[in-house]
């Protein structure tokens, strides 16, 4: 069983590495980070779809059955995701592209997945955490791509930012709190699984503080820009330079 799990993780790691190399060859005029973020975007879309299917259709429901034995599909998805996180953590460390908080998030994710695979249980709630963590990831990557291509300061950029902040607050913080509560009150999960859940939720709050600061600064900047435009329009009208119909 352990050998089969290791082989799945190694195949996953090899697959993500191969995808990264392919993106690098296809985008030779772009940076290595561009290709890495394409891999991250791909994993985000794939993991959202798979984890949503497991949580909402295949089951069991994470809010009522935390600590349940892993299903074969959960094991496959966790191995697929573990290979990705190992790849991305290695990339981030090698290129020194992320700060301590993101490295802590990746490390906790890797340890949490390994823990669920070794125990043979709690894949239900780990899969739910995966869904909550990844649901904002494609938006985060879209935001970066918009910046790189010079299209961030647009209506599309505003929509992406709004959806990112709303989903992060509603899902990772709001729904995440409910999931953590269910994990804490259930007698099934091991105590160290519960500690891992607390640690992941604490990391989400650290991200949340940074996101809220960004959202506040952007909102104030947008408000001042709107006030400035309104003031200019009033001055033009009063001076008779602005035609009105």
From TrEMBL:
<protein>
    <submittedName>
        <fullName>TLC domain containing 5</fullName>
    </submittedName>
</protein>
<feature type="transmembrane region" description="Helical">
    <location>
        <begin position="191"/>
        <end position="212"/>
    </location>
</feature>
<keyword id="KW-1133">Transmembrane helix</keyword>
<dbReference type="InterPro" id="IPR006634">
    <property type="entry name" value="TLC-dom"/>
</dbReference>
<feature type="transmembrane region" description="Helical">
    <location>
        <begin position="38"/>
        <end position="55"/>
    </location>
</feature>
<keyword id="KW-0812">Transmembrane</keyword>
<feature type="domain" description="TLC">
    <location>
        <begin position="29"/>
        <end position="204"/>
    </location>
</feature>
<dbReference type="Pfam" id="PF03798">
    <property type="entry name" value="TRAM_LAG1_CLN8"/>
</dbReference>
<feature type="transmembrane region" description="Helical">
    <location>
        <begin position="101"/>
        <end position="120"/>
    </location>
</feature>
<dbReference type="InterPro" id="IPR042512">
    <property type="entry name" value="TLCD5"/>
</dbReference>
<feature type="transmembrane region" description="Helical">
    <location>
        <begin position="6"/>
        <end position="26"/>
    </location>
</feature>
<feature type="transmembrane region" description="Helical">
    <location>
        <begin position="158"/>
        <end position="179"/>
    </location>
</feature>
<feature type="transmembrane region" description="Helical">
    <location>
        <begin position="75"/>
        <end position="94"/>
    </location>
</feature>
<keyword id="KW-0472">Membrane</keyword>
<dbReference type="GO" id="GO:0016020">
    <property type="term" value="C:membrane"/>
</dbReference>
């Amino acid at each position: 069983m352990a050998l089969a799990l290791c082989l799945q993780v190694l195949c996953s790691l090899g697959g993500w590495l191969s995808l990264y190399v392919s993106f690098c060859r296809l985008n030779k005029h772009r940076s290595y980070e561009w290709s890495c973020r394409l891999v991250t975007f791909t994993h985000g879309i794939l993991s959202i779809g798979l984890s949503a299917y497991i949580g909402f259709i295949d089951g069991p429901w994470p809010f009522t059955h935390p600590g349940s034995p892993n299903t074969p599909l959960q094991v496959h998805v966790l191995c697929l995701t573990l290979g990705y996180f190992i790849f991305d953590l290695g990339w981030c460390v090698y290129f020194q592209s992320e700060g301590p908080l993101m490295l802590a998030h990746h490390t906790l994710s890797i340890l949490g997945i390994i823990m669920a695979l070794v125990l043979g249980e709690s894949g239900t709630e780990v899969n739910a955490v995966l869904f909550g963590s990844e649901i904002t990831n494609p938006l985060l990557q879209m935001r970066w791509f918009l910046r790189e291509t010079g299209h961030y300061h647009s209506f599309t950029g505003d929509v992406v930012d709004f959806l990112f902040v709303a989903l992060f607050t509603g899902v990772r913080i709001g729904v995440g709190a409910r999931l953590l509560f269910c994990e804490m009150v259930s007698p099934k999960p091991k105590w160290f699984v519960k500690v891992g859940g607390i640690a992941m939720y604490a990391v989400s709050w650290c991200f949340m503080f940074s996101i809220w600061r960004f959202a506040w600064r952007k909102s104030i900047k947008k408000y001042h820009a709107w006030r400035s435009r309104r003031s200019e329009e009033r001055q033009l009208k009063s001076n008779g330079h602005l035609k009105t119909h």
